[in-house]
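In this section we walk through a basic example: taking a raw amino acid sequence and producing a predicted 3D structure, encoded as discrete structure tokens. The instruction is simple. Fold the sequence below.
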Amino acid sequence: MSTNQTDKELLEQLCQEYKISFEKVNQLLATVKEYQFKDRRIGIYEALKEIIKSDLKNENK
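The resulting token sequence is shown next.
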């Protein structure tokens, strides 16, 4: 994902403040960006769901 350093730092701070995985948020944003300019966004919800589910699976271990 192409974000400038200030945006990245702000996102990292927010993730720490709200106790959310920066890596997962970054993955979610990259996935949304990947689908952004497609004519049809078939599969985006499934892709986002899998990222979120993988985080939940790791928490339960």
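Looking at the output, two observations stand out. The mean pLDDT is 88. The two ends are 29 Å apart (CA to CA). In the next section we compare this with other chains.
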